[in-house]
């Protein structure tokens, strides 16, 4: 296996957020407020491995450039600060506001430390901010919701407005029961149990970090249907048990009446059927997209999500220093109709390429071997549309060495409608035995062409295809000099109808 000698900043991403010199994992508390996007996240303020869980904090006005802020909510001898969410309490239902200004309220999991009154349990607690999310005060009445359970965590809270009334709803997990529990509250302090969803579909690992939100349902033409025609999406992350190994996220589409979520996309009730794994609704088919949750209070009805770009199988060992772990690109999610059923589609937010124009464009390239394109940067958007020919496999290699000895191979096999991302020769793959791998994703049956959008950064590739229905996110650690892009057709011919290479940094 290859080993790359790296400097401290060799792999620091240009398009993705990473801490300056500490560890991060799950995004939490995502909120838009007063023109600023706030990204909070699980953070070890004292090192670059998972420990001392606190809420780190970064801000952005454009979802692209992020500025690291001081730690928002710090762990102490009583509790570690596990994942949760933030709401803008517009009507001050919590009473934490002052002078008519709406407070921000964080609902987080207290993981109580040995020696505390609640030691050994996880329960839900509150903190509030009156300065727009920069400083936080813990509520003296914490915890506000407990089941005296060691694995009850990750509250995602939103305001429900519907036939059942107007109130706050919390989705949290009993991790080892593969269950999402729903609660309601009028004031964010007192909570009443509503219902439980699960187990269902993927149960190969514990459930974590749920989210529940409503999206417009498109009609057969792909446009939004009549006003009020919606479906609810429940996402829940799972570790391990992903479709290509390790941690992953899944989603269900259905109905929520203010009390109960009823899925209409469940494939298997109860524990998973390994033979049906490919049929489940996966947020991402790659190895490195986990704990994804959405922002609250975003204008214009946009539903924006971000995930942690790492995998618990090797998270503490990836070869970055002093920082460790980046976030994914922010994605806008929507529903699309496929064979009469709604599925979740994801696209990178438009802000990422708002000012970008292709540096090089090609069309009508006949592939019967390998075409190499040198001279690009390590950070690129690659857009390619392929038309199958006689080759059983075709595609491209990104972050490649000029001599072909290194690269991440992204290929399409039309006979099985299969997309593969092979990082076994992507650079430094020797730091953990499970890192070198090939991820596979099922595509829709071909309609004559395959289109890929690939965002390449110093330590990652994110592949979007099938109009956003399929995404594959992978960490890679290539030699900094490996910036070649190659197109190939193996065992026959194919055509690259178009190829656009855009340098993004």
Question: Can you tell me about this structure?
Answer:
Helices cover 0% and strands 48% of the residues. It is an all-beta fold and 505 residues long. The protein has a 6-stranded antiparallel β-sheet with strand order 22-33-24-29-30-31, with no helix packed on it. Strands 23-32-25-26-27-28 form a 6-stranded antiparallel β-sheet, with no helix packed on it. Strands 5, 6, 7, 8 and 9 form a 5-stranded antiparallel β-sheet that branches. 47% of the residues are buried.
The outline comes out as globular
Q: What characterizes the major β-sheet?
A: 6 strands, antiparallel
| SSE class | mainly beta
Strand content: over 45%
Mean pLDDT: 95
Cross-sheet strand order for the largest sheet: 22-33-24-29-30-31
Uncertain runs: 1-5
Tally of DSSP β-strands: 33
Total helix count?
0
Radius of gyration: 23 Å
List the helices and strands and how they pair.
Blueprint: E1 23-33, E2 36-44, E3 54-60, E4 67-73, E5 79-88, E6 104-112, E7 122-129, E8 137-138, E9 145-149, E10 152-162, E11 165-174, E12 179-185, E13 192-197, E14 206-216, E15 230-239, E16 248-256, E17 261-263, E18 290-294, E19 304-308, E20 331-338, E21 341-348, E22 360-367, E23 370-373, E24 380-388, E25 393-400, E26 408-413, E27 418-422, E28 438-442, E29 450-457, E30 460-465, E31 470-475, E32 484-490, E33 494-503
Q: What's the gist of this structure?
A:
The chain is mainly β and 505 residues long. 0% of the residues lie in helices and 48% in strands.
């Amino acid at each position: 296996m290859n080993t790359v000698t790296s400097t401290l900043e060799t792999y620091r991403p240009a398009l993705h957020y990473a801490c300056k010199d500490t560890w991060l994992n799950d995004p939490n508390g995502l909120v838009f407020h007063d023109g600023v996007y706030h990204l909070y996240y699980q953070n070890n303020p004292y090192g670059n491995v998972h420990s001392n869980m606190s809420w780190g904090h970064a801000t952005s006005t454009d979802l692209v450039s992020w500025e690291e802020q001081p730690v928002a909510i710090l762990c102490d001898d009583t509790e570690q600060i596990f994942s949760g969410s933030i709401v803008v309490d517009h009507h001050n239902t919590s009473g934490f506001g002052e002078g008519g200004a709406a407070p921000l309220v964080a609902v987080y999991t207290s993981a109580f430390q040995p020696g505390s009154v609640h030691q050994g349990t996880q329960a839900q607690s509150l903190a509030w901010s009156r300065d727009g999310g920069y400083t936080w005060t813990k509520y003296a009445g914490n915890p506000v919701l407990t089941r005296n359970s060691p694995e009850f965590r990750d509250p995602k809270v939103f305001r429900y407005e519907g036939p059942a009334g107007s109130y706050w709803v919390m989705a949290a997990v009993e991790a080892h029961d593969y269950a999402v529990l729903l609660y309601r509250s009028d004031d964010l302090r007192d909570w009443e149990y509503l219902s439980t969803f699960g187990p269902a579909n993927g149960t190969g690992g514990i459930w974590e970090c749920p989210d529940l939100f409503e999206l417009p349902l498109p009609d057969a033409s792909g446009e939004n249907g009549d006003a009020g025609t919606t479906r609810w999406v429940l996402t829940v992350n799972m570790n391990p048990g992903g479709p290509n190994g390790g941690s992953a996220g899944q989603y269900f589409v259905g109905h929520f009446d203010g009390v109960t979520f009823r899925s209409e996309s469940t494939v298997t009730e109860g524990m998973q059927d390994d033979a049906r794994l490919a049929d489940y609704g996966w947020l991402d088919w790659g190895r490195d997209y986990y704990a994804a949750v959405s922002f609250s209070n975003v204008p214009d009805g946009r539903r924006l999500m971000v995930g942690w770009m790492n995998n618990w199988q090797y998270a503490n060992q990836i070869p970055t220093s002093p920082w460790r772990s980046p976030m994914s690109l922010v994605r806008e999610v929507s529903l699309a109709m496929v064979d009469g059923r709604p599925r979740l589609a994801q696209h990178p937010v438009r802000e990422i390429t708002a000012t970008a124009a292709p540096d090089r464009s090609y069309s009508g390239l006949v592939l019967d071997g390998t075409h190499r394109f040198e001279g690009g940067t390590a950070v690129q958007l690659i857009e390619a549309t392929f038309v199958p020919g006689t080759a059983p496999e075709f595609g491209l290699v990104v972050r490649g060495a000029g001599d072909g000895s290194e690269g991440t191979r992204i290929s399409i096999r039309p006979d099985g409608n299969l997309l593969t991302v092979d990082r076994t020769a992507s650079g430094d793959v020797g730091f953990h035995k499970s890192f070198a791998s090939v991820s596979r994703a099922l595509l829709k049956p071909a309609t004559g062409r395959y289109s890929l959008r690939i965002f390449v950064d110093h330590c990652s590739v994110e592949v979007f295809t099938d109009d956003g229905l399929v995404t594959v996110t992978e960490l890679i650690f290539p030699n900094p000099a490996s910036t070649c892009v190659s197109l190939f057709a193996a065992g026959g011919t194919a055509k690259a109808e178009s190829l656009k290479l855009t340098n993004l940094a």
